[in-house]
Model the fold of this input.
Amino acid sequence: MRTKPPCVSPLDPVSTVLSHMMKEEIGAVIVAEDNRPIGIITEKDMLIRVFHAGRDLISTRASEIMSEPLVTLDSQGSIKDGLDLIREHDIKRLVVTDGEYLVGLTTERRLLEIVHEQYIIQNSNRMNRVLSDNGIKINVGYVSTFPPRQCGIATYTYDIVDAISRLYATGQSGIIAINDKGGFYDYSSLVKFQIDREDTDSYRRAAENVNNSEIDIVNLQFEFGLFGGVWGDNIITFLEELEKPVVTTLHTLLQEPGSETKKVMDYILDRSNFVTVMAKVGIKILENKYDTLPDSVRYIPHGCPNVPLLGCETIKNVIGLNRRTVLSTFGLLSRGKGIEYAIQSLPSIIEKDPSVLYLIIGQTHPEVRKHEGESYRLYLMDLIDKLGVNENVRFVNRFVEKSELIRFLQATDIYIIPYPNREQISSGTLLYALSTGKAIISTPFLHAEEVMAQGAIKGCKFKDPDSISDSVIELLTDRSSHEEFQSRAYQYSRDMIWPNVAMKHVNLLYEALDL
Done:
């Protein structure tokens, strides 16, 4: 806990509360009488009860805006007691008391950090050795696309490398970056080698460089379209020459593979010490369709940012979307995203709520743009014209940075995932929407099915605009159901924040090296 947390009296003006928050860069101030806590004022209280309500900072007293009754934790209580109270009351902070007197303040994040530390120390001898002063720290090479290349897997790789580096559990990371044909990127110093997607010799040279480097193990991020050749079989050249252990992350897993796709996948599975899947159903698919032993497969979720759960109205005001009911979908545009079905659902939704605004966030996928330009986006725009919903759709036609993306999601009332096919086994967009506590409507693709089974998202049918509109209208008209889906989504994502996912990957990398 933080001892001697900032306090004000119930009669202090709100300006004093604000001064504490600004000066000490904190998000909450305790209201106390004679060192007996009676309430708490958070940034959210200030936004909603003071600024949004237009109240005066001098004449308004702390007692008028504080949250009460106060939830407290006895100083002799356990971390589990604290986390149970936080979950039960849906709060972020706990006032710690000794009897009736104030002794400190703790937060959900602080408690989770302690639990995380205890997990490392008590439940992972491997991590304990790694984090000790004299521990062995392995060097990992990641074969993947990487920023500034604009690609979903590049973003994923950046996030997982960054999260692992924050654990201080590995040595220097090195990226073996995959370039598209003719592509040239101003990479950071993390990129040690580059592979030309269509040049098999560059795969061979990269493997030789890795063999002669201090890299101890390779993490391959695999998706068929990432690598050149027939169904990405150029990666086999790299793996044939590589002399280091491999752990492969599968971003794609076909349930009915053709002969060429199965050949590529079989080689990767055979060459990898372990493979990871981002949905539990992937373990069964690998066992049933690819004769893979379950012992060599691990489920590790995609990972998502750890962001606060905020009401969307506050963020709408910030980004100029107030008085709109916001629906959204994000990701690099391509025909496989099913955006047209969401657009076709809008007339029925608008009839019920004319204020609806559907945000389509993201530029056309660079690889798609090379081959067909903006034909898909133009098709969507023609469809919007035909349906007469121009005032209710807005394209955010650019590659959106993470902080801006999170703001868009936080301003969203309902997030829509209209994928037209069941095969997709991982979805970063789904995890990001869950992490911001959105009510989500999705078709039952493989990854989404698992989340639906936990009651965290609402389903709709494939390629069925009426099913999408029915689900949206149901959530818009049933406030309690809408709020329940938001709460379940946020709680579901808590185990999947990047620090937790990074720790699972680190454990597996060390296990692959028998350390």
Notes: Residues 15 and 213 are 59 Å apart (CA to CA). DSSP finds 22 helices and 20 strands in the chain. The chain has a mean pLDDT of 89. The chain has three domains: 2-112, 135-303+498-512, 312-496.
